[in-house]
TrEMBL record, chain A:
Signal peptide boundaries: 1-20
Top-level taxon: Bacteria
Alphabetical keyword list: Signal
Family matches, as InterPro entries: ThiB-like
Protein's UniProt name: Periplasmic substrate-binding component of ABC-type thiamine transport system
Provenance organism: Kibdelosporangium persicum
NCBIfam families: sfuA
Database matches in Pfam families: SBP_bac_6
Record has Transmembrane helix as a keyword: no
Length: 334, 506
């Protein structure tokens, strides 16, 4: 008898919460599930407008950072959790491509400059540069540094805070930037000098930027690894454009998508003029579409870095990542 | 009766974990197991967990005494404050501890872990302590035993099951604590939990992650078995009493303990106050919106409502599972310890392992649960159920079985016996367990962050998101949301306390 009560109660409870949260969907409209990372953001009105014009309701499903997203896509490739994915970046792209997660689709609007290969499985959507940021009024009279080399100069002793490449994606991008700049045999020496110059390593961007960096008012260090776009939100700071590492974020239609037709339309939408124009304010990244103007505040405080070559080939990153991070660990923390 | 909770556990825990570990079970696993680095990780993980457990028990015992045995004004508030750490997202607590002890290293990890878990000790031990018969102690004192001797010879043995229970839970929580270790350990201190996350999510080294998951599981089972053996040797029927009868104004040397308890309380309040002081009026005002440049998809208040409703679903489900398991565990005899250990396992396994396991298994169930909003309360219930068992079981086991036998002899059905004997005696603990479970579900971050849909974040998820985006408003809003979370917790605790008093009078 008790068992029956319990079973009934369980059923009731489960039913009640599912009823409360499941939204009714009109029968004729179609839905496309967009799988993405936690940093994805879009204005609701823009999605509503897209829905009105195309009849497609976009259901957004976020899962962790770019790494978590890629790995989830690989794990679920036999039965994907969505129709289209956005947010696989240059660091993880080759893993996704090798595992055949995406199907080919060439959008008429795709910017060929950022094309990864000729299979058309991934389409570039935005560009994010990781650069050292400086708090201009926090330097106390020392001239602003400009290059990687400057950061190891004793003038800037105990001023730089970076994220660990093992746990943070801007941290990894900065490490890759130093590898690109100093070469596969030179970066170790550079980091030894950074260490001697008092670089502080923390586990994530939140701590580095909000707690250690003097530009946000709480910390004491005027130099931090962040994004080229961060100065748009934080006054008296700017990005050192010679210390940038470029990461491109891609979208693609998933292999085995239940609604591939709709997914293609959503991909077109992601690189449309309207969506691209809002990418800076929504996600703190730069649009890939040519001729999309940056918001006014950005043009002054956070212009787009011009060094388009500041990135390592995806395959090389995928191959050496673990090894590089391990080397970095024993070098900086050993 | 044990079948319902065990079935649930198999479906939503064992199967996903086995599947994801199985996926990585290749020869490459052996490399990880053979590496000295791995064993260093195991050592550090267990060491910091053990140290944190010791600190949490040392700090929690005086509080348990204060809550269980002392009739002092403001007791309800103390009880509520003790619960607050539990709901705070680890990110925020980590940042607070960093601010308080900038170069704390291992010590800051241990203290932050203990900070989270003092409530487990105070609640679990306090629950039993409040119901143990004071007269045995009084008799010992009358026969000439010192206060200390009366405590070590009479009270402590009676409390051992609860202390063992609490220690097991705290140890599990500390050995799998993630956010705290990540933030306070910098990149320097790593545990099995942070390394499993790194290998699974960043490096996609599934064999390595599987090897570490197996080690984690083995360590957890070993700790649980040791705990269970220790508990078994000490289990004895106690005479249970209502708190009304056992609490009184402290006398003589008891004031020293009370003083220590208040000292612990001040220490607990330090990080809490530092958090509250960082929230601002603008931050609170912003909670009705979605943050700087719409950082959130819903308003802060909506997220708070989501938290409340999800935690309610999870608590109801966990109460059903927990009560059923506890009753079954009491009756099972020999296999009871085995089931007991099984029910505790979810506390000791990485949320990432379970989350990735869900991805590759739950699509086989009708309705593709992988993307269902239902998954959040289900996952929270898995975390909350063992806590309910831990609070309820020591009390149920302490009930003199002759009471049940007498009722049975007089013709009461098993259900009637439970309603007339067990429920009145364990009712207080049941309410405690519900309140505690609710608060844990409110604050749950690991599994929830993995499963919550973006249009329905809980408050801790919203805080994590706010703090990870630039903009001063977001930071202020995050701290305001933390304060809101604390206020809700205190309100829940005070409300439940009211309700509990009514139950007692009745």
């Amino acid at each position: 008898m008790l068992k029956a009560v319990v079973v009934a109660a369980t059923v009731l409870v489960t039913a009640s919460c599912s009823l409360a949260t499941e939204q009714p969907r009109p029968g004729n409209a179609q839905t496309v599930t967009l799988v993405t990372h936690d940093s994805f953001a879009v204005r609701k009105e823009l999605l509503d407008e897209f829905q009105k014009n195309s009849g497609i309701t976009v259901e957004v499903r976020k899962s962790g950072d770019a790494g978590a997203l890629t790995n989830q896509l690989v794990l679920t490739k036999a039965n994907p959790i969505g129709d289209i994915a956005f947010g696989v970046d240059s660091t993880f792209a080759s893993r996704a491509l090798n595992e055949n997660v995406f199907q080919p689709y060439q959008s008429p609007d795709a910017n060929k400059r950022y094309q990864l290969d000729d299979t058309n499985r991934l389409t570039a959507v935005d560009i994010g540069d990781v650069c050292v940021n400086v708090h201009t009024t926090g330097l106390k009279g020392v001239p602003e540094p400009t290059t990687f080399e400057d950061l190891a100069d004793p003038k800037y002793k105990d001023m730089l805070v970076v994220e660990s490449p093992a746990t943070s994606s801007p941290g990894l991008a900065f490490l890759l930037g130093t590898i690109l700049h100093f070469g596969a045999d030179g970066w170790q020496d550079y980091w030894t000098r950074l260490k001697a110059n008092g670089v502080k390593v923390v586990s994530g961007w939140e701590e580095a930027y909000n707690q250690e960096f003097s530009g946000t008012g709480k910390g004491t260090r005027p130099l931090v690894v962040s994004y080229a776009s961060s100065p748009a939100a934080t006054p008296d700071t700017k990005a050192l454009l010679e210390t940038c590492y470029r990461q491109i974020e891609y979208a693609g239609v998933l292999q085995g998508a239940k609604n591939p037709e709709g997914a293609r339309k959503v991909l077109d939408f992601l690189i449309s003029q309207q969506f691209q124009a809002e990418v800076p304010d929504q996600m703190y990244v730069y649009p890939v579409r040519e001729g999309v103007a940056l918001p006014e505040a950005w043009q002054k405080a956070a212009p787009m870095p011009t060094d388009t070559e500041a990135t390592l080939p995806a395959q090389e990153v995928d191959r050496n990542r673990e090894n590089w991070v391990n080397q970095w660990r024993s070098l900086v923390q050993g | 009766m044990a079948l319902v909770p065990l079935g649930f556990l198999t479906l939503f825990f064992a199967w996903p974990v086995v599947a994801i570990v199985g996926l990585g079970a290749r020869a490459a696993m052996l490399d990880t197991l053979a590496s000295s680095d791995t064993w260093q990780l195991v050592g550090f993980t267990l060491g910091q967990a053990a140290a944190s457990t010791v600190v949490a028990i040392a700090a929690g015992m005086p509080l348990a005494f204060l809550l269980a045995r002392c009739k002092l004004p403001g007791r309800g508030l103390v009880q509520a404050i003790v619960l607050v750490p539990f709901v705070l997202p680890a990110v925020v607590v980590g940042l607070a501890f960093r601010g308080l002890m900038p170069d704390g290293g291992v010590w800051s990890i241990i203290l932050a872990n203990a900070f989270f878990n003092v409530a487990v000790v105070a609640r679990t031990v306090g629950g039993l302590w409040a119901n143990t018969d004071r007269r045995a102690e009084d008799a010992a004192r009358a026969l000439g035993a010192s206060r200390l001797r009366a405590f070590t010879a009479v009270t402590l043995p009676a409390l051992t099951p609860a202390i063992g229970s609490a220690a097991a839970v705290v140890f599990l929580f500390c050995s799998t604590s993630f956010g705290v270790v990540l933030i306070l350990g910098g990149a320097e201190y790593r545990t099995l939990e942070t390394e499993i996350y790194l290998r699974t999510v960043q490096l996609f080294d599934l064999p390595g992650a599987a090897a570490l998951s197996i080690l984690q599981l083995a360590a957890v089972v070993a700790a649980l078995v040791i705990g269970a053996v220790a508990r078994k040797r000490r289990q004895a029927a106690l005479k249970l009493r209502g708190r009304q009868e056992t609490a009184r104004r402290p006398v003589g040397g008891e004031w020293v303990v009370v003083g220590i308890a208040y000292g612990v309380l001040v220490l607990l309040l330090t990080p809490i106050v530092s958090l509250v002081s960082q929230s601002s009026v603008e931050g609170f005002r912003a909670l009705s919106g979605t943050g700087h440049d719409n950082s959130l998809e819903v308003t802060g208040l909506r997220a708070a409502m989501n938290s409340l409703s999800t935690a309610t679903d999870a608590t109801v489900l966990a109460l059903i599972l927990g009560v059923l398991s506890s009753i079954a565990l009491m009756r099972l005899g020999r296999s009871a310890e085995l089931v007991d250990v099984a029910m505790m396992l979810p506390l000791g396994v990485s949320a990432v392992t379970v989350g990735f396991g869900y991805l590759i298994t739950l699509d086989a169930l009708p309705g593709d649960l992988r993307t269902s909003p239902l998954l959040v309360p289900l996952a929270q219930a898995i975390v909350v159920t063992p806590l309910i068992i831990r609070i309820l079981l020591p009390v149920l086991r302490s009930i003199d079985d002759r009471l049940r036998q007498a009722a049975g002899t007089l013709g009461a059905s098993p259900l009637r016996v439970w309603l007339e004997v067990d429920l009145p005696l364990a009712g207080r603990s049941l309410v405690t367990a519900a309140a505690f479970g609710y608060v844990v579900a409110l604050g749950e971050f690991g599994a929830t962050s993995f499963l919550a849909r973006p249009d329905a974040p809980t408050l801790p998820i919203a805080i994590g998101r706010l703090i990870s985006r630039p903009g001063e408003l977001n930071t202020q809003m995050a701290y305001a949301a933390c304060t809101l979370l604390m206020v809700v917790t205190i309100a829940v605790a005070v409300l439940i306390e009211r309700f509990r008093t009514t139950v007692e009078e009745f």
